[in-house]
Amino acid sequence: MIVDLNxxxxxxxxxQEPNFRAAADRLGVTRSAVNRGIKRLEDMVGLSxxxxxxxxxxxxxxxxxxxxxxxxxxxxxxxxxxQLASExxxxxxxxxxxxxxxxxxxxGTLIGSFAAVYPQVTIDVTVTDxxxxxxxxxxxxxxxxxxxxxxxxxxxxxxxxxxxxxxASPGYIAEHGAPAHPRELIxxxxxxxxxxxxxxxxxxxxxxxxxxxxxxxxxxxxxxxLRFMIxxxxxxxxxxxxxxxxxxxxxxxxxxxxxxxxxLPEFPGFFLYFPQRRxxxxxxxxxxxxxxxxxxxxx
Length: 299
Hints:
By secondary structure, the chain is an alpha/beta fold.
């Protein structure tokens, strides 16, 4: 492998500065020149060294290894670059930020089979509903509903379409009746969900005759924990709203009853998303391939 060592100062500037603009100012060149230099170096090595979006820049695991190599004598750097380029087997730490409502992923079937196929990949899953820049926070990828993923991300579908559900216990319905229309929910006791303490409860979204609308219920109980929300509904505390897959076992057993189904259409489901496809690290390419294989087997 031939690597232009003149590109290493460009990489070093990017590693030590908060963004490409600051690195360009430090080197006295344009931002596009820095971007081209990093792409050339990545193409030579065959791995992504810098994870970047329109919002942030961060070294990948391979980039961190290269940064560490730069403290060694030049002769060792060349050898180290060749060793880095030869790492084609999926390995290392894969950090994922996953929304708590992603039942197709959090059920464990997908991640369990992935771990069995790729034993050299260590998987760290953070379940969070906070909205943040996964690159700036040091994650390799995330799992969220497709409709809320930023436009500059690459997204790979995990499962099929999803729909939401409104449910209540038979006891609650016997005592308070069932709403015939979503707007009647404001007269019922409701159990709401919020992603974080400083966020307003989620608005319940519906569709009628092809026109979407939402209902801003005023929950008597609000939580960011799906298990508490389900247990409250099971014990007759009120009507609640979440992904249908979350409630499916309880609806099947008769512990909860689905309501307002005619107003709840299907929509695109969950996706694995990440910032770039070019020179993707093997540890990230591996789950992308595994998800596609899993979907193919279950389609």
